Amino acid sequence: MAHDPSLFELVRHPIAMRTLEVKRVVALTPRMTRVTLGGADLAGFRSLAPEDHVKIFFPRPGERDPILPVIGPSGLPAPSDGPKPIARDYTPRRYDPDRGELDVDFFLHGHGVASTWAAQATPGQVVGVAGPRGSYVLTREVAWHLFVGDETAQPEIARRIEELPASVAVRVVLLVDGPEEEQPWPASGPIGARWVHRRAGEVLLDAVRALALPEGEGFAWLAGEASQVRAVYRHLLVDRGLPASHVHASGHWKRGVAAHDHHEPIAVDER
Q: Which residues belong to any copy of the FAD-binding FR-type domain (predicted)?
């Protein structure tokens, strides 16, 4: 969705294709795995905002090295004949330039290229990483932030909380399978977190409807399954009266749609 220029500045980055190795794999929960990538190509990597995403290129089944596109003057090239690169977009969870490490958290949903790869990832395996193309940097602070999403949004939400000033109030509503998928939130200022459990039949919209928002100017970040994000987006704009410029919504995935484009706009009037 469009970013309000009164709140955000777009910082462009040169596109580089990096070949990185897996350094570590850590299970954060039964269905969330952190893969730490490194290598000489990571030098010069930049990620200035939690909303950034990189394109990760995975090897084809049975192969060691991924097929990588050649970066041209206009960025990534259009697809050509022959085997196509296999890539998905992910949030840079943590970048440590001193250690030369990039953390990426993967939700293991049991199907799809990225989830399948992450479930078997071991040190020494190779992936390609391109991006971020740019970062939308928040240029002024607001009194509070509301974060709503599912497991696919948790890496971005956790990074946002880490990077906020301690004086900013934070409210979080996150949908996961059950208590075993709950992760501790980073230490920060006043945080009110509500876990929503999918197995118990709970949905994001009901939890957000029951939520009391802080006073003052705030910003809401919504990400996850497109239909649930759309329902919360409509509620915040229509029922709560938040201005559209202060609500950012992204459908990271869409039920029944393979390789959904998360750039697809969320429309408030869709049912």
A: 12-139
